[in-house]
């Protein structure tokens, strides 16, 4: 192989994806600044999800964060909130967390109920 050619090397199992690294950074800020405990999970897509509270999940691809806020938009549909910076994402998510913590869990619909349109009943 000549020096101008490159060989793609698959990341080892020990190598953490950028998405997982950013998700872990978010959990650290949420914990240290806002006292909020959160978990990181890797998705098959390569993205990561941060589980913050019942009905509050933040996703990242390593560059930006996005989540569905606890309040519906003017149309009544869930509002997708995107954010590029970690401090701003953590601050907004902490605000959403406070809103959700103030509600009874019986008033917070499960994520599947939010996403299903036909409400066919239990699966």
What does this structure look like?
By secondary structure, the chain is an alpha+beta fold. 31% of the residues lie in helices and 24% in strands. The chain has helices at residues 18-34, 86-101, 111-115, and strands at 39-42, 48-53, 56-60, 65-72, 78-83. A five-stranded antiparallel β-sheet has the order 1-2-3-4-5, covered by helices on one side. The longest helix has 17 residues, at 18-34. The chain is globular. The model is unreliable at 1-14 and 112-123 (pLDDT under 50).
Structural class designation:
alpha+beta
Please state roughly what percent of the residues sit in beta strands, choosing from under 5%, 5-15%, 15-25%, 25-35%, 35-45% or over 45%. 15-25%
Q: Trace the largest sheet across and list its strands.
A: 1-2-3-4-5
Major sheet attributes: 5 strands, antiparallel
Report the average pLDDT across residues: 79
Share of helical residues: 25-40%
- Please, how many helices? 3
Shape verdict: globular
Span between termini: 55 Å
The string of secondary-structure elements, in order, is HEEEEEHH
Low-confidence stretches: 1-14, 112-123
Number of strands: 5
Evaluate the radius of gyration.
Answer: 18 Å
Give the secondary structure arrangement, pairings included.
Layout (H helix, E strand, L loop, with lengths): L17 H17 L4 E4 L5 E6 L2 E5 L4 E8 L5 E6 L2 H16 L9 H5 L8
Antiparallel strand pairs: 1-2, 2-3, 3-4, 4-5
Helix pairs in contact: 1-2
């Amino acid at each position: 192989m000549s020096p101008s050619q490159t060989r793609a090397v698959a990341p080892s199992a020990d190598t953490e994806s950028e998405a997982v690294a950013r998700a872990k950074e978010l959990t650290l800020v949420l914990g240290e600044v806002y006292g909020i405990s959160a978990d990181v999970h890797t998705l098959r897509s390569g993205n990561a999800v941060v589980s913050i509270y019942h009905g509050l999940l933040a996703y990242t691809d390593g560059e930006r964060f996005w989540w569905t806020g606890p309040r519906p938009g003017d149309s009544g549909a869930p509002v997708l909130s995107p954010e590029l910076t970690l401090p701003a994402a953590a601050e907004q998510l902490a605000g959403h967390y406070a809103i959700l913590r103030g509600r009874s869990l019986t008033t917070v619909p499960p994520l599947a109920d939010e996403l299903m349109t036909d409400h066919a009943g239990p699966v």
